[in-house]
UniProtKB/TrEMBL annotation:
Organism per entry: Galdieria partita
Entry keyword annotation includes Repeat: yes
SUPFAM superfamilies, sorted: RCC1/BLIP-II
UniProt cross-references to Pfam families, sorted A to Z: RCC1
Protein name, per record: RCC1 domain-containing protein 1
Repeat (RCC) residue spans along the chain: 169-231
Domain of life from the UniProt record: Eukaryota
Keywords: Repeat
Entry keyword annotation includes Repeat: yes
InterPro entries found in the cross-reference section: RCC1/BLIP-II (IPR009091), Reg_chr_condens (IPR000408), Signaling_Regulatory_Domain (IPR051625)
Length: 406
């Protein structure tokens, strides 16, 4: 695979004729995609949704391709919306604003786009309605500016809310709070000592239950949230209807809880959330998944009283750990691996390649591999232990990969 932007699977809104395709040893076809004009490489970030792609180039500019639709369509609505929509989608559109520049990070959900801009000094959130026109721009978003002593570090968007790490590791939240997904509880006490349900926060609010200056990563999906701490512990809160937060209580978690299975002696390395599932990479290279998928449950919620959560699943670690050489240790291999979430599947990026797990891959992206077991990791791409710059992002119908050898 040569350097560039690649797609596995297809997207109804973005597909164009590829002049170059690559079929790897697993029989998976990757199509080379054109990059935006005036895009400066290398890329800083890629994010995909069900209908579009966002990328950030080396100068911190954002480009968008495809319509930014909500994901709540029925099949009938889908076909009619494709036919009636007036815009041409297989071209890239730059999103520009004179006061929003030097994008450091972005996160996109079904109904929010959140940017960390101006070198980490500014946080901007946009609803999809601002990005659906034929000439979208970064106008009329809600913005916050950091103080002179701190920066916005990383962000994760859920359905109508987001979490952001500020400064040295404090976590703040904004948006809907129907299931306690902001980590600040459901109820607040008014001046008249009456408890009222607090469902929405219009300002950034610190999550005081997360230890100060300890957050390393935040993850959101739908109405569930998780925070990975610098000491390897994992804190969860929000909707837990399908046990996706790895606890035995099938109800919303209002106050953030720590998962007992991970500690300073057995730390988590990374985590990701997808649909109704949470995946966590452990320090020995093992991967744990809790929750269930809407069609292929890993376990049924009725059995939650007897299940140990989360479930340890099969993984490709033994295969690529055996390739460790004197230039890279086993610990370095694990610590340089990343978990990412698609729609009903997870992606594991390692120094040796990319692997996928979950029914969403075989239902929508790799239909020719539908005879493989639900518990098998699929090899999506492998390479030798060379210096690589790789970004990968997965949506419902496709996986987007940026690959560059250095």
């Amino acid at each position: 695979m040569r350097n560039g932007l690649w797609r596995c699977g297809q997207n109804l809104f973005q597909d164009d004729t590829s002049f170059f395709k690559s079929v790897d040893e697993s029989g998976i076809e990757w199509s080379n995609l054109t990059l935006p004009e005036n895009c400066r490489l290398p890329l800083k970030a890629i994010q995909t949704t069900w209908s579009c792609i966002f990328l950030v180039d080396d100068q911190g500019y954002v480009f968008k391709r495809g319509p930014y639709f909500l994901q709540d369509w029925t099949t009938a609505e889908l076909s009619s919306s494709i036919e009636k929509h007036p815009y041409y989608f297989d071209s890239w559109v730059p999103l520009v604003h004179p006061d929003i520049y030097d994008i450091q990070d972005l996160s996109v959900s079904s109904n929010l786009l959140v940017l960390i801009a101006n070198g980490g000094k500014r946080l901007v959130v946009f609803p999809p309605s601002l990005l659906e026109s034929s000439s979208p721009s970064l106008q009329h978003g809600s913005t916050w500016s950091s103080d002179s002593h701190s920066r916005y570090q990383s962000v994760a968007a859920g359905r109508g809310y987001f979490l952001v790490i500020v400064g040295q590791g404090d976590v703040y939240g904004w948006g809907t709070n129907d299931y306690g997904q902001l980590g600040i509880g459901w109820e607040i006490q008014s001046d008249h000592s009456v408890h009222i349900q607090c469902k929405y926060f219009h300002q950034l609010t610190q999550i005081e239950s997360v230890p100060s200056k300890m957050a390393q990563k935040v993850a959101c999906c739908d109405m569930s949230s998780a925070v990975l701490l610098k000491n390897g512990q994992v804190i969860v809160f929000g909707n837990n209807l399908y046990l996706q937060l790895a606890t035995h209580i099938c109800c919303p978690i209002q106050v953030p809880q720590q998962l007992d299975i991970f500690s300073m002696d057995h730390p988590a390395i990374d985590m990701a959330m997808s649909g109704w599932q949470l995946a966590i990479l452990g320090c020995q290279g093992e991967i744990w998944i809790s929750g269930k998928e809407p069609i292929h449950p890993l376990f049924h919620s009725s059995s939650c009283s007897s299940q140990q959560l989360p479930i340890r699943v099969t993984h490709p670690m033994k295969e690529w750990l055996s390739r460790c050489s004197s230039s890279i240790t086993r610990k370095e291999m694990i610590n340089h691996s990343l978990l990412m979430a698609g729609r009903r599947y997870f992606l594991l990026q390692t120094p040796c390649g990319i692997y996928g797990y979950g029914s969403g891959l075989k239902d929508h992206i790799l239909s020719h591999m539908s005879n493989t077991s639900e518990e098998e990791w699929i090899v999506l791409k492998q390479w030798t232990l060379t210096r690589q710059r790789v970004f990968i992002s997965g949506a419902e119908n496709d996986i987007i990969l940026y690959h560059e050898e250095r």
